[in-house]
Amino acid sequence: MNRLQGSSSSAKRKRELALVSDTLTDGERVLYNLILSKRDMGIWSGDMKRETNLPDHMVKKSLKLLQSKGMIKEVVNIQNKARKHYMAAQFEPSKEITGGDWYSEGSLDKELINVLKNVCVKYISRQKVVTRDGVLDWSRKSGVITAEVSNQQIEEILRALVLDDEIIEVKSTGYGDFENVPVGRVCYKSKSKGGVRGEPKDGAMSSIPCGVCPRINFCTPDGIVSPRTCVYYQKWLDF
Amino acid sequence: MGSQYGLKFAVHLVTNHFGKIVAKVCETLFRKGPLSLGEIIRCTELTPEQVKNSLLVLVQHNCVQAYVPADQFRDEEESTVTVEYLALFDNVIHRLRFPKFLEIAKRQLDDECEKVLDGLLRDGRLTLKQMVERAVQGKENPGAIEAVVRGSFHKLLKAHYVERCPAPEPVVSTLIKAEPAPRKRGSKMAKKFEAPETIEQRVMEAALPGEAIRFAVIEYTGGNADREANSDDTIMVNVGDNSGGIANEGSILWRANFEEFIRHLRHKLLIENERKRLDDGAATILSAILDATKNVEKKVKIEKSVPLSLDSIFTEVTKNEYGRTMTIDRVRASLVQLGCPQRNLDDSYSIDLKNIVEMARNEEVESIVLKRFGGDAYRIFRLLSKSNCFLETDKIAELAIVDKKEAPRLLYKLWKDNYLHMEKLVVTAAKQSRFMLWKVNKPVLWEYVLDEMYHAALNLSLRLAFEQEKDEDLLHVSRDKLTPTDKSGEVNSVQKRYLRLRDVLFLMGSSLMKLDDALMLFHDF
């Protein structure tokens, strides 16, 4: 069955290629075959010139033509957004090119991430304690998350929330809040007690001007930057 | 190199408390290590009289320890020996904490004990006789006051908040174990804050066995105090059986035992951190364990609590009001929460205290990163701090969900400010490629952050003095002119300035105390 399908699709491709080849010049065909051979990685126009040895204007012209025929497309390469990067029309750019699930149009989709984060934090703080599977189950069934988000993405969001210190990862002890969770299972818990968002962190250093001072390394008692003349102190002590 | 700003801050404190000349002597000792009197005179270019007096002041306030290097005996047996002086960094910094120590004495014991301790902290070292004289001065009914002072002194001694002063000029040697504990502190300082010259190493080695002697002193007097606490009227007559009767009441010098106060503060931090992280139950249990084993702890920075069986933990826990509500199962569950999933072989539990301290340190540094570098950097830092190994730039961006273009920039910033350690890796396979690997190097970072904290403490203290100086005239204005009196509640400019100064001093004072907590967290705990 598989082989049958395989052979039929390869035949189809050959047919397409033949069709395409008919209408293309030699140069265009060489370029197209090169781009096609790179599959979902695509190729930078500079590399095309190097690999095909075609003159600059010819490459430009051919790319334009191929694009207008809908045979290739330009994609954004996360590694270098300024470079013109091309890919055959039938491929979707790979993760290396797009940057992964969180990227759209070559930049990080912060909005989506923040929305997902907020939704997850709210759910976890309501639940007191919840396992990873619990969050995944809920994310699929509740319908709160409308965008297409994979389980892996939810897991990544949970991991980022742990790094944000919004939630904490704990192992179930089987007592108290963990009553319904098997002992030893990894759970997520809202950082603060009672489900209310915790008060912002106030470290001893970070609550005084010196703790966040970008110039502390230049500051000396009698120097140009000194505690007596410090503008940050001035602001801090401005009652 | 040791903590540059630590020394600067210590010298600043000495200058504030004892003036510039004493500070100069102290600074010389910090910078050059232990010196003899002659050497100090040469280095400071002060008169012998000034240096001698400065040293007397510093010794009186436990900031300098004199000792005799033992090798002198080997070289020339009969001739006079030279005494060397070693500045004790920790004891100088402890001066910042006196208000905290007084607060502990007040809370745990009573107001009278606080007064006796206050006298000791102010004067550095006192005999019991001097303490009594100090309290009786200019008051009626001296007999009653004397009894109160003696009672308070015994309470302080029983709680180990007071200790006998170390021998004035012990011989430092690995052979003769005549080394009291402050040598230990001093030597730690020497190791940490001065170039590791041979002389420091020798002092440090010599210091080690001394610890036992020092604790013997405490056990001894502690036991004595126990005995005497039972019979109120018997005073410290038999303190030194070897030195004979009532006469030594006027000769034995006492001082505050900073170590016990620091231990108390450390315990408090451990308990409060676990309360915040876990719950009241866990905090109660940790508190009970630490209380029960307090007297067995050999040093302040113990890594694990002294092993205790479940039964004895439970007995201790039930002494506490909240603890009485706990069942033995609950106690066991809390022990698991505290990180002892299995008991040790001998059916005892021991809690990893170092880990709690480490978490508190992490939190402090993370809060700095959050404020200074923002949320994305905070996530990156926490990722690296938790994973505790090298990670590659792209991997970091992926795991912390930070924009791949943004991540290298943030990593570079963190690295440039010494918060990260970076290594370049060049792989020459089919195509040469370079990778940047990043890591949080905690021991190095902790030292760096500590130095920055000393710097901040120095700055706070300097600015505080500056603010006071600026509005000095307000101090001479009479009090009733400073508070708004008329009913309209209007404030004139002088009152406005006074109110501002009051707020400024309060904010800066409390910030300094809080910063001092962080200093202890990174240096003493």
From TrEMBL, chain A:
> Where does this protein chiefly localize?
nucleus
Give the organism, scientific name. Stylosanthes scabra
Q: Which Pfam families match?
A: RNA_pol_Rpc34
Q: Which family does it belong to?
A: Belongs to the eukaryotic RPC34/RPC39 RNA polymerase subunit family.
Protein's recorded name: DNA-directed RNA polymerase III subunit RPC6
Keyword annotations from UniProtKB, A to Z: DNA-directed RNA polymerase, Nucleus, Transcription
Where in or outside the cell it occurs: the entry states:
Nucleus
Which InterPro entries would you find in this protein's record? RNA_pol_Rpc34 (IPR007832), RNA_pol_Rpc34-like (IPR016049), WH-like_DNA-bd_sf (IPR036388), WH_DNA-bd_sf (IPR036390)
Q: Which domain of life is it from?
A: Eukaryota
Q: What does this protein do?
A: DNA-dependent RNA polymerase catalyzes the transcription of DNA into RNA using the four ribonucleoside triphosphates as substrates. Specific peripheric component of RNA polymerase III which synthesizes small RNAs, such as 5S rRNA and tRNAs.
Q: Does the keyword Nucleus apply?
A: yes
Key word Transcription present in the record?
yes
UniProtKB/TrEMBL annotation, chain B:
Give residue ranges for domain RNA polymerase III subunit RPC82-related helix-turn-helix.
10-66
InterPro entries the record matches: POLR3C_WHD, RNA_pol_III_RPC82-rel_HTH, RNA_pol_III_Rpc82_C, RPC3, WH-like_DNA-bd_sf
Where located?
A: Nucleus
Keyword vocabulary terms for this entry? DNA-directed RNA polymerase, Nucleus, Transcription
Its main localization is nucleus
Which residues belong to any copy of the DNA-directed RNA polymerase III subunit RPC3 winged-helix domain?
365-438
Q: How does it assemble?
A: Component of the RNA polymerase III (Pol III) complex consisting of 17 subunits.
Role, per record: DNA-dependent RNA polymerase catalyzes the transcription of DNA into RNA using the four ribonucleoside triphosphates as substrates. Specific core component of RNA polymerase III which synthesizes small RNAs, such as 5S rRNA and tRNAs.
Of which family is this protein a member?
Belongs to the eukaryotic RPC3/POLR3C RNA polymerase subunit family.
Q: Which PANTHER family match?
A: DNA-DIRECTED RNA POLYMERASE III SUBUNIT RPC3, RNA POLYMERASE III DNA DIRECTED -RELATED
Q: What is this protein called?
A: DNA-directed RNA polymerase III subunit RPC3
Source species, please? Stylosanthes scabra
Q: Could you read off the lineage of the organism from its UniProt record?
A: Eukaryota, Viridiplantae, Streptophyta, Embryophyta, Tracheophyta
